[in-house]
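Notebook entry, structure prediction.
Reason for the run: the old model in the group folder had no record of what sequence produced it. Starting over properly, with the input documented here first.
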Amino acid sequence: MPAGDDLIVHLARFARALRGHGIQVGIGDEIDATHALTLIDLFDRAEVQGAFQIAFKIRPPDRAAFDALFQSFWSLAHDARAPQLAERRLATAALPRGTVSRSDDHSADQEHAPNRPADSGTVGYTRDVVLRRKPFEECSPRDLAAMERLLTRLAPSWAARRSRRLKPVRGRGLPDLRRSFRRAIGTGGEMLSLAHRARAIEDPRVVVLCDTSGSMDVHVKFLLAFILALKRVARRTEVFAFNTSLVRLTPWLSPGKIGHTVERLAIDVPGWSGGTRIGESLMEFVENYQQQYVTDRSVLVILSDGLDRGDTTLVSRAMRALAANARKIIWLNPLAGDSRYEPTARAMQAALPFIDRLAPAHNLESLERLVPELAA
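New structure, fully documented this time:
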C-alpha cells in the first residue's frame, strides 16, 4: 500500500484504469474513495477493496473487471509497471478457464520479486508476505528470527487500529454537527469552526490462554512471539499456558529472543509439550483467575487445537462461565488453516456454543487478523 501523497496518486491512476475499462467513475467517486481511506484499516486489503467498491458504486456487471484491476493495482503499488501488469492480469482473468498458462501469469508478477527489498513498502511478492503466509510447521529457527524482526516493525501499526466508537478530537476527523451547533450557541449562532470526531484508540484488555501440549508444540514458539509483540501495544495482555494444568506466563515473558524464552519455559513449566486436559485447565482459570482478569471489557483468546480426551462437561462449564463475563471469546485453532477442517473434536464441540469466533492460527497472516477484533 503506498503512503501519503503516493496513495492519492495511485488512487487516481486506479480510477483512470476503471474508466478505461468502461466502468463509470466520476471525480466525486474519487473524493468519496479518498475519504473512505481515512475511515478504514489500510493494512486490511479486503476492507480497502470493499470500501472502494462502495465509493466507486461498482455495479454487478462490472464486478469481475473491478476485482481484477484492484488485485493488480493494490498488490503492485510502487511498481512503475503496475498499470501494464493490471492489463495483463485483467486479460488473462477474462479468458476461459484452463487457457491461461500458469508460467506466463506467474512470470509477469515475479519478474521483479527476487531483488525487491523486504522493507520496500510493497504489499505483494515480498519476503515479508511469504513469511506471513508460511505455515508454522514449515518454519525454521531462521524464520522465527525473521518473524520477530517483522513483528517489531508491525506492532506500531497495530496500535493505530481504531475501534468503531467515535470520540471528540481536535483537528481532523468526521464533522460532528451536533457539537458544532452546540458551540455556535456561545457565539450568537455563528459557526466559527466545525467540531470533529474520530475512531477511538483503545487499550484492549486481552487474556490469552495458550495450549502448550505436545500436539501444539510446533506452533507454540510462533504463537508466543506474536503474543509478545501484541503485549507491546496491548499492555494489559495477560498470558497463561495450559496443558495438564494452568500456569500464568505473564511474568516470564519479556522482550528478547522468544526461542530462548520457550526453552526456559519448556524446562520450568510443568507438563510442557505433554498431555492436555482442556476442561480441567479452563476450570482452574475460572476458579483462580477469572474474577481478577476477566471483565465485560476483556477479550479472551484461546489458542488450542482442541484435541483432548478429558472430561468435556468441564469444558462446557468453564466456557459458559467465561462467556458470561468476557466481552468476547475468540478461539484460534491451527488446524482451522486447512480448508477441510471441521471442529469435530469433542472439546471443540463442547466449546463452540460459547465462542464468538473460531479462526485459524496456522501462520502469521492468520494471527494478524486477530488485531482488529480486539478493538471491535
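Summary: The CA atoms of residues 89 and 105 lie 7 Å apart.
The old model has been moved to the deprecated folder.
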